[in-house]
């Protein structure tokens, strides 16, 4: 297979998506959009498919795909490399590709995918060689099972946080455990890492993984006063999850993220009880009783939840532009 991303691009948006965009988002999304959480991939290395799309996704394909969420916007992006434990070579390939694609545009930044057993000196050399800007970790590489109940150090060990501190890098962390940031072990670890390694910048993905916003209301007050702590909104469709960040920690901590490929699947995340669930297009809930719902792209539902959060928190246009560009540009030195 060629090392250059290739694709057979066809748009995946349907008329229900275009109507939703015009009705809900056309006048909300600012002219410049920095996407602080998104992925590039080789089709043969990943377990997912975007319905109606085939091919690898490099920077050009990325731009064409996200243009379906925010057409005509000037884009910047932080690409998070991707890996699954069963395909060790895939990680190296995707890290290489992330470096190569990031180099194509001065408004692109990229994160290197780490495994918890990586040697910090090797990571340092690789990140420099690939001209990347930080680290991406994931719970599926944790040694403890089930991995979604892992403690943060089991997939983001302290010596790699220390490396990010030495180098001034960002780290994107999708924390796990059933109660996310409301879990004491999680918020204590985040606080300790941020205080002990102030030159490392930590981004909590999916609005602190607050797919159940009650967890954010409970946990975020424990994370006040950390200058190097940030959040990306990606894939979370609950407005209160974003609002909790804006109200408790400030709008200048929050950055928009599409989470492509998730943005291009259909449905939404939904909070329930003390947890959450995902409704996908194939989940049999869209045709009950008298209604027939056409589920729209998750990325569009997500954008509406960000809009509702901004409206409810009475943000000004310039504060909304901060969430969609300035906060990330400042954090990542994009001019
Ligand atoms: Zn992601």
Structural class: alpha/beta
- Low-confidence regions: 1-7
CATH class: Alpha Beta
Q: Which band does the percent of strand residues land in?
A: 15-25%
Q: Can you give the helix content as a percent range?
A: 25-40%
CATH topology annotation:
TIM Barrel
Taking all Cα atoms into account, the compactness measure Rg is 19 Å
Instruction: Give the mean pLDDT.
Output: 95
- Could you say which overall geometry the principal axes of the C-alpha atoms support? globular
Number of helices: 11
Task: Give the biggest beta sheet.
Answer: 8 strands, parallel
Domain count: 1
Order of helices and strands: EHEEHEHEHEHEHEHHEHEEEHH
In whole angstroms, the N-to-C terminal distance is 36 Å
By DSSP, the count of extended strands is 12
Please identify, by name, the CATH architecture. Alpha-Beta Barrel
Description of the molecule:
With 335 residues, the chain is of the alpha/beta class. It has one domain (7-331): Metal-dependent hydrolases (TIM Barrel), CATH 3.20.20. It contains 11 helices and 12 strands. It has helices spanning 15-25, 59-66, 88-102, 120-129, 158-167, 184-196, 205-209, 213-219, 239-249, 298-312, 317-331, and strands at 7-8, 32-38, 54-55, 74-80, 108-113, 134-136, 170-173, 201-204, 229-232, 254-255, 267-272, 275-280. The longest helix has 15 residues, at 88-102. 50% of the residues are buried. The structure holds zinc ion (ZN).
Sequence-ordered SSE layout with sheet pairings:
Blueprint: E1 7-8, H1 15-25, E2 32-38, E3 54-55, H2 59-66, E4 74-80, H3 88-102, E5 108-113, H4 120-129, E6 134-136, H5 158-167, E7 170-173, H6 184-196, E8 201-204, H7 205-209, H8 213-219, E9 229-232, H9 239-249, E10 254-255, E11 267-272, E12 275-280, H10 298-312, H11 317-331
Parallel strand pairs: 2-4, 4-5, 5-6, 6-7, 7-8, 8-9, 9-10
Antiparallel strand pairs: 1-3, 11-12
Helix pairs in contact: 1-10, 4-5, 8-9, 9-10
